[in-house]
Design goal:
Distance between the termini: 113 Å
Shape: globular
Structural class: alpha+beta
Strand content: 35-45%
Strand order of the largest sheet: 5-4-8-2-1-9-12-11
Largest sheet: 8 strands, mixed
Length: 639
């Protein structure tokens, strides 16, 4: 009887699987709840990863995704990267129409095959095979099946069952099999609130998730992986391109990386040694020496991506950078460290996830060799503080890290061990834009103005680039910057980039016709000439997600306004003060004398993380600021 049951199972199980697959290939079977707010629906994603040996891992994946409209095309995700350590054993895609009828089959050799890096990379063996498909109708479904063999175990694919905003998931399964004697580091977040089924046991990690509805992007939304299910795995004992390491803790991992990947790579030529020693002669303060070295690197090297070494992890030798005068972030940071070593300045190679838009942390509780960083900078301990050097920029001021590597956990690698510490947090007060102006108003409503803008912190980074543009582009920039002022003519522009104080100064002279509206004997004048907030956060009937302001800032404005002698002020508004947990706003206008007005404005936006129910108050704060910024005063012609 048992044999009969087994025979029935062997015969019937494949039929059930094929029937289930046919259902998933037909877009008409998608539950209505998963269509709502979705551009794409992941019908089935099955990842099976198995460690076969200390230096061999196999990943098979079967993925079915239905693209509902053109905005969902990016979720096809039919691509694979490969290099000397990654071998593609199977790669096949099939395209189906709305009813589940196959319309195209793409075999492995039919995929596009291109370099995985851009033209700024000198050389690399990293490549990508990807599906190039132009849909003729929507919806359509893609079945993508792959098998990939890795010659290392240092990086294990993450599990993220919700792949992005406006993407729902019907079924997702993730299985990782390994030798249970090799301990596993893992990080599992947001499982409970999304009903994740965790069937893990020794030697096997097993996650499943079903019917995950699409999440709509909302303004100021946090990173999706911070609010949806996300799992990271890492073997404590791993291999990578012939190296075998351990990641029991950050301290031990840092010591291993220093000894295996960095040690002995900081030699430079005698010629360079003599140059550097001559440049720092007479300097005693380590900070002064470091500034000289940093300037030397900026003047004598350039950035270019060089994907060599151990999988793009190990820097090229400083001696090589010294010879060719270029390097990537790893090579230039290591080269700068080599020169600092020469002059006795302490510095440490540091791995970071660099990003201008999101503050991405290295997870302090998840020790891992790969996968949490994409960039290298240099750490300089100095008098109880930490200075951070961006070694790839030829223009960045010494110690400036705003808008790219600021305010996040990074991995500092020292000879005696590694440590995760936080980079500089730029406060709202430090992120200052100080705008002053002298304005002459004519009786026709025209203006002439001399404007001075001084920017600091993150705002320095937003403004400093203007000096490198063409004269035409600079003019267009200011016309766009003050787009609410019509008939603007830019008369002059000059700049000063003070890298010592990290302050960028812009001096602008302009004229504008009919800035003030003339009505009979009156002029209607907006006294906030040059810093009008007009964009209001998007309104939501019911905000779903929490929100965050990642970087605060402070705008200060002070304008001296000369009015025509034959006009006088008919009405001035009262001073305005708005203050809450989101920030603070001050606005005032006063008479200096009969023909001169003084306008002052201050707007502070605080960094912070907030719950969804705070959003309406946050938006109302902005609305009130916009209202005050656009307010007018009345000037009347003397009788």
């Amino acid at each position: 009887m048992i044999k009969i049951y087994r025979l029935i199972f062997v015969l019937v199980f494949p039929i059930l699987c094929f029937a289930q697959e046919d259902k998933l290939l037909n877009s008409q079977t998608i539950p209505s709840t998963l269509r709502e707010n979705a551009n794409a629906v992941v019908r089935w994603d099955d990842s099976q990863i198995e460690v076969k040996a200390p230096n061999k891992m196999v990943h098979t994946n079967k993925r079915i995704v239905t693209i509902l409209n053109s905005s969902g095309n990016s979720k096809v995700n039919a691509y694979l990267g490969y290099d000397k350590g990654i071998s593609i054993k199977k790669m096949e895609a099939r395209i189906f129409d709305a009813q589940g009828k196959e319309i195209k089959k793409i075999k492995r050799n039919d995929f596009e095959d291109v370099s995985a890096v851009d033209g700024g990379t000198l050389y690399s063996d990293s490549r990508v095979k990807y599906l190039r498909y132009t849909p003729i109708d929507y919806p359509y479904t893609v079945l993508f099946e792959t098998e990939v063999e890795y010659s290392y175990t240092a990086y294990i694919r993450r599990w993220k069952p919700i792949e992005g905003f406006a993407t729902s998931t019907e079924n997702s399964r993730y299985v990782f099999r390994y030798d249970a004697s090799n301990e596993l580091n893992k990080s599992e977040t947001n499982f409970e609130s999304f009903g994740v089924i965790n069937q893990s046991k020794p030697g096997e990690i097993h996650y499943e998730a079903n019917n995950l509805k699409a999440i709509v992007y909302e303004a100021y939304s946090p990173n999706l992986k911070d609010i949806t299910p996300y799992a990271m795995l890492n073997l404590k004992n791993f291999s990578y391109e012939g190296y075998f390491g351990s990641s029991n803790d950050w301290e031990g991992l840092g010591k291993w990386m220093h000894e295996q990947l960095l040690l002995g790579r900081t030699r430079v030529s005698d010629k360079t040694k003599n140059e550097i020693n001559a440049l720092v002669a007479g300097l005693d303060d380590p900070l002064d020496k470091a500034k000289v070295v940093y300037q030397y690197v900026q003047n004598n090297t350039r950035y270019i991506s060089v994907q060599e070494g151990i999988g793009g992890i190990q820097p090229i030798d400083a001696l090589k950078v010294d010879e060719v005068k270029y390097g990537d972030c790893k090579g230039l940071s290591n080269y700068t460290k080599a020169l600092l070593d020469l002059v006795g300045v302490e510095s440490y190679y540091t791995r970071v996830f660099a990003s201008p838009d999101n503050l991405v942390d290295i997870n302090k509780d998840f020790v891992s060799f790969l996968g949490q960083s994409n960039h290298v900078i240099l750490n300089l301990p100095y008098q109880g503080t930490n200075i951070w050097l961006e070694c790839t920029s030829q223009t960045s001021p010494f110690g400036y890290s705003a808008n790219f590597t600021d305010d996040r956990n990074v991995f500092v690698i020292r000879p005696d061990g590694g440590e995760v510490i936080r980079t500089k947090i730029y406060t709202a007060a430090e992120n200052l834009l100080d705008t002053k102006a002298n304005i002459v108003l004519t009786e026709d409503g025209d203006i002439e103005a001399k404007i001075n803008l001084n920017s600091y912190g993150t705002q320095y980074g937003h403004h400093v680039g203007i000096q490198y543009r063409t004269l035409k582009d600079q003019t267009l920039h200011y016309k766009d910057y003050w787009s609410y002022i019509h008939n603007v003519d830019i008369l002059s522009m000059n700049y000063n980039n003070d890298k010592d104080t990290i302050m960028f100064t812009e001096n602008i002279e302009l004229t504008a016709k009919k800035y003030a509206s003339k009505t009979g004997d009156r002029l209607l004048l907006s006294p906030n000439f040059f810093n009008v907030l007009s964009n209001v956060p998007t309104r939501y009937r019911e905000r779903k997600l929490p929100f965050e302001i990642e970087r605060g800032f402070h705008d200060m404005d002070e304008y001296v306004i000369s009015i025509p002698e034959n006009f006088e002020v008919e009405a001035l508004q009262n001073d305005v003060l708005i203050e809450n947990k989101f920030g603070k706003y001050n606005y005032s206008i006063s008479k200096m004398d009969d023909h001169t007005l003084l306008f002052k404005r201050s707007f502070i936006l605080n960094k912070g993380h907030y719950v969804n129910t705070d959003y309406e108050d946050f938006r109302n704060f902005y609305l009130e600021v916009v209202k005050q910024d656009q307010s007018r005063i009345i000037l009347i012609k003397k009788s």
